[in-house]
Amino acid sequence: xxxxxxxxxxxxxxxxxxxxxxxxxxxxxxxxxxxxxxxxxxxxxxxxxxxxxxxxxxxxxxxxxxxxxxxxxxxxxxxxxxxxxxxxxxxxxxxxxxxxxxxxxxxxxxxxxxxxxxxxxxxxxxxxxxxxxxxxxxxxxxxxxxxxxxxxxxxxxxxxxxxxxxxxxxxxxxxxxxxxxxxxxxxxxxxxxxxxxxxxxxxxxxxxxxxxxxxxxxxxxxxxxxxxxxxxxxxxxxxxxxxxxxxxxxxxxxxxxxxxxxxxxxxxxxxxxxxxxxxxxxxxxxxxxxxxxxxxxxxxxxxxxxxxxxxxxxxxxxxxxxxxxxxxxxxxxxxxxxxxxxxxxxxxxxxxxxxxxxxxxxxxxxxxxxxxxxxxxxxxxxxxxxxxxxxxxxxxxxxxxxxxx
Length: 405
Description:
The protein has 14 helices and 12 strands. It has 405 residues and is an alpha+beta fold.
């Protein structure tokens, strides 16, 4: 085997320029695939990291289940069943309502528990205090989200300590809808959370359910002690007929999307590999014509068709190894160039939070598996491209070859 590769190496050294061009053609194709794949992997990693930073991976969001026209409501019995599951730390139910002020200002209201506030640690007070459900009074205590507070201050001149009238429309199973009025008092205003909570009004869950005359919750947040057990807890929740979602769903969706995008881009960038393959085929066919007498002598001295094929495929294997190594090196350099040149362009084009997130880290990610795949592509491409010329050389008639001596 060693003699075979030494012979193949001597043959390749005779045509250095031709071999260099073949190796360069394969390497460029491999580098293009590696660069595009690294770009897709880098963007995927950044997107996943952003999701992990902005979402709690130990929280499962639960909503009412619907199957075959039947709705499974979130009741106290369901909550009790979830709390009994292993690895569940606590459950935070909530209800959602819509209030309208006397001046027809719409308010999105959410009735929450202290556990809900514990999960959403970004709900920090800017002014005032949180409501105290143990205090009974003639009004309902509310805490305003940052944007709601600004809107009410401008349109109705309301702030912490002010009371105002509000109403909610109730829809019963029988009869027309009716309005129910209450008096609310602003006891606190939140700092900007940077999410949907800025446009919400918070109230104690007991008062919210009494106001809306509900006996079921609109949703739950289930806190799990470890992200590794989120999937099992979610399955248990779905078994009792409720819908469950977690941040892992978003991560899985991003992974699927980026894998699809990377495959498409990798396919089109891999077209350049066809050029390298054709160069291998062309060079090896020319080599067959150039070495016709050598092949004839080898066969006359007892070399089999398989020996001749091995000789040519060994040359292809060496070309593939050199192309793979050079392609990996060029791919790493290509990825560095994407970071140096492409990232500033993407940051300036996208702008905003997305641009800022790209600015924070590299937009490419080179992994050992990507380099291994690039090397394997070069190796397989070279061998496959050399099969036809090698077979053609092996089937050459010794008599026809010897007539050229």
